[in-house]
From TrEMBL:
The lineage of its organism: Eukaryota, Metazoa, Chordata, Craniata, Vertebrata. Zn(2+) binds at residues 192, 202, 204, 209. The active site is at residue 140. Homodimer. Homotetramer. Homohexamer. The hexameric form exhibits both enzyme activities, whereas the dimeric form only catalyzes the phosphorylation of N-acyl-D-mannosamine. The chain holds residues 423 to 765 of 767 of the full protein. This is Bifunctional UDP-N-acetylglucosamine 2-epimerase/N-acetylmannosamine kinase. It is found in: Cytoplasm, Cytosol. It comes from Gasterosteus aculeatus aculeatus. In the N-terminal section; belongs to the UDP-N-acetylglucosamine 2-epimerase family. An N-acyl-D-mannosamine binds at residues 100, 112, 140, 189, 192, 211.
Amino acid sequence: DLDEPLQKTFCFPIVKDSISQDIDHILETQSALAIDLGGTNLRVAIVSMRGKIVKKYTQPNPKKYEDRMQLMLKMCTDATRDAVSLNCRVLGVGVSTGGRVNPQEGVVLHSTKLIEEWSSVDLRTPIADVLQLPVWVDNDGNCAALAEKKFGHGKGVENFVTVITGTGIGGGIIHQNELVHGSTFCAAELGHIMVSLEGPQCSCGSRGCIEAYASGMALQKEAKRLHDEDRLNVDGMDMKLTEPITAAHLINAAKLGNCEADAVLNKASTALGVGIVNMLHIVNPSLVILSGILASLYQAPVQHIISERALVSAKNIKVVTSELEEPALLGAASMVLDYATRR
Ligand code: ADP
Ligand code: BMX
Ligand code: MG
Ligand code: CA
Ligand code: ZN
């Protein structure tokens, strides 16, 4: 066996290997705490520098401000405790949330009915006080865009748009490598692009928004309506009476030949497709990334509607489905990882 100094002198590959192991170690251990507050779920995760979710905690997002803050802080302190035993050094906290967010202040300015009691909420101060860590906050769709840019299909893409389907529809715009926030932090609220003058009521108070046609909640509403009228169930559909009706039932029914369910999905995809054509004509991205639970359902129809209804110069824009497990959470983490490691 060579002793250490000799190894360094004669066996360069071994030395190089140990350096890359050190870098590996840093990339594995330096991590962020990520929080995502959505219309249905509250998630917290420990995320490594490489974008790996080391551990994730999910709870229903409480309806009341006090309960929500309390649960969020409890989940965070539990996660920081677990981080120690998982050998993760937490550098800071990144928060993704529905609503208009001022990222400079770390404040949620305003929310739709999707998250109640969630306007004029300072998130930075209480989280920083409890955890004694720096805190970054942005809108969930914007976070999803950051995640695509750092870890996903948006890597190296200068101009792209992302649309994320959950309870609602979130959006993020990367223009010349930067997020677009707008003059009052209301840019990229892509769920509220309107595609009809009448159209279904949206949780924002308006109507005809793509969120009111194509979100998880919109499909769930339609599924419930068909179910109540006894028109959802078809042969081969195994539905327990106790389980709550979701968008999944509607999709399943359509697959098994339920024409009405199929018509609802068609309308939803068309509304989303037309909404995305509008986005193409405003920001002219080179790529559209769909994420969230319904992304794969919408990818092909949206691509088709673009080919039919976009201006010639925007017809060939590609629509892809995200490969990221949790874009909003990963984007929240990326705000920490990018700032905390900046020299
Ligand atoms: P949020 O960020 O809004 O809290 P999530 O991204 O966690 O939401 O997604 C929750 C939404 O997805 C709910 O509207 C729920 O009904 C819907 N959903 C859950 N499971 C499925 C599924 N298997 N197929 C389609 N929709 C689903
Ligand atoms: C709503 C709106 C958006 C958000 C989107 C997706 C609020 C509280 N939310 O359109 O800001 O990006 O929902 O949210 O105003 P999710 O609940 O589907 O993740
Ligand atoms: Mg969400
Ligand atoms: Ca947004
Ligand atoms: Zn709306």
